[in-house]
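Revision sheet: structure tokens.
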Amino acid sequence: MKRLIVLLGVVGISASAILVRWSTAPSMVLVMYRMIVAVGLLSPVVLLRRRDELKNLTRRDWLMSAAAGCCLGLHFTFYFESVRNTSIAAAVVLSDTEVLFVALGSILLLHKKLSRMCWLAVALAFIGAVTVALSGGTGGESGLLGNVFALLSAMLLAMYTMIGASARKRVSNTSYTFVAYAFAAITVAAVAICSGTPLAGYGAQNWLTALGMAVLCTLMGHSVFTWGLEYLPPAYISTVKLLEPVFSAIWGLLLFRETPTLAVIIGGVIVIAGVALYGHAAVEEE
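Predicted:
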């Protein structure tokens, strides 16, 4: 049942790219709106049921949750920019190379040794990611830039996942996500202010878009993944997200008549195969 719940979370996050395309606010502002709405929706539960837990969080718990939130806010910013500069299929596929960065982080930070099967999987996913990245997505410099943004978003999401896996051993899912989402909003707001980007004046459309993201993509998507980290291996969480490109590409085709290029399709299949193989090998090792 737990694996099924996490699987259903993919349905929620698959709507993210579509909502980004419908929005008009700058990416940083849209991320801030999304996180503010998510925090607002979580506040009643936190204040009624988790207030004592928040008071008892250690300095390390606060720092870990805050660091995760910073990574999440920047991940969303780069991902939104990616969707606006390249094809939906390319953006989503490349953002799902998160597992490559999780593997790299496990080697460098946790001194974990990978099996031959895991290395093969990483190599496959890397080849697929390069194929998609060099395809240009929608074509031209804009598409290539969007692909780079997608890879940066994957790296930041991997950092969020690894930090979350550690923090969630001591903090409940509700309290952790509440703090992380709050710091995600603070992070992107600070970046927006430093860059001179106005934080208001974008109309109700963007607040409605943020509400849709907060409910479908954040609470029913990323929060479910964070919850799953308490019961399931990070490798499974990363692997199950592989269905997101499929759903997102279908939405892109139906709503925007956006057909992925042959290079994106081939590279995407290779990425999905590599990440799926890695997830299977990692689960067997555990």
